[in-house]
Design goal:
This protein is mainly α. It has 13 helices and two strands, in the order ααααααααααααββα.
């Protein structure tokens, strides 16, 4: 080997025929959709403007409520309406509503998760028939069976109690919850079930160690759905309760409606305060909620 060959510099640049520019991330180059953007802006306006008007009106004085422009910020904002709400039994109403919502969510999860697991994993005819029969509850409105429910509540001596609100609300939330959870559990790979079965796992162990962790999206969706049913429900509290003891937030709004008029700012202030807790729940579970609604389940 000659001396010139040993002294030949080694090529450090890119190989011939290759692009010398660094690799860049590919950007989406699709066309802009002005109609979709316009629709999003309109939807945002439909949602944001009423919320803004409600908060603005809740900060005005009662004497200015009727002549106040809802889209104009209050000239002299005040928190007196919120103070009135907080000193008018709002804490008791909030506690009853939180207790009812938590109980409804617990009942729905305890019953619907195992039921959905059995419906997905069991291949018998009876299991499928029971599942389809159970889903008939989606087509039955609560208003159609309120009279039989009232008689059952009265016979069980549950009238004018929180259980009279919790049990029917949980019952009517279960069909949709089972429908959501079965769709989520079907997204779990069959190979995972077989792998755990080869390890000697029992069905109960599969439920708690495989199904529940991978079905967080569907479970979060069910939690938010059941909590909303209990939080915003009016029919069952209105018919199955009478006294102030088991009264919830939806009925507490009637406290600001009197024989001589309506305290509009205080009413709207109570609506704002009652919406804060469930909004916080949505913020915490929003990612899992969107994933469950899109049907991706635990994948």
């Amino acid at each position: 080997m000659s001396h010139d060959t040993l002294q030949r510099p080694v090529r450090t640049g890119p190989a011939p025929g290759t692009d010398s520019t660094p690799r860049r991330r590919k950007h989406w180059s699709g066309r802009a959709n002005p109609l979709a953007g316009l629709g999003s802006v309109l939807w945002l306006a439909v949602v944001v403007v009423p919320v803004y008007a409600m908060i603005s009106a809740s900060l005005t004085h009662q004497s200015e409520a009727l002549g106040h422009n809802a889209l104009k910020p209050p000239s002299h904002p005040t928190l007196d309406n919120y103070e009135t709400v907080l000193h008018n039994g709002f804490g008791h109403l909030l506690w009853n509503t939180v207790l009812a919502a938590a109980a409804v969510v617990a009942i729905v999860l305890v019953l619907c998760v195992p039921l959905s697991y059995v419906a997905v994993r069991t291949r018998s005819i009876w299991s499928g028939a029971a599942f389809r029969l159970f889903l008939l509850g989606v087509a039955i409105p609560a208003q159609a069976v309120v009279v039989p429910l009232y008689l059952m509540i009265a016979k069980l001596d549950l009238y004018d109690s929180l259980l009279a609100i919790i049990l029917p609300t949980a019952a009517f939330a279960m069909p949709v919850s089972v429908l959501i959870l079965t769709g989520t559990l079907r997204d779990i790979s069959e190979d995972l079930y077989e792998a755990m079965a080869l390890d000697g796992a029992s069905p109960t162990r599969m439920l708690f160690q495989l199904v529940v962790p991978l079905a967080k999206g569907g479970i979060s969706t069910v939690v938010v759905y059941a909590a909303l049913q209990a939080w915003n429900g009016l029919l069952f509290p209105l018919i199955f309760t009478q006294s102030d003891g088991p009264r919830v937030l939806t009925l507490g709004l009637f406290n600001y409606v009197s024989e001589f008029g309506v305290n509009i700012p205080a009413l709207l202030a109570s609506v704002v305060l009652s919406g804060v807790p469930i909004f916080v729940v949505y913020l915490v579970a929003r990612r899992a909620l969107v994933g469950g609604l899109m049907g991706v389940g635990g994948k």
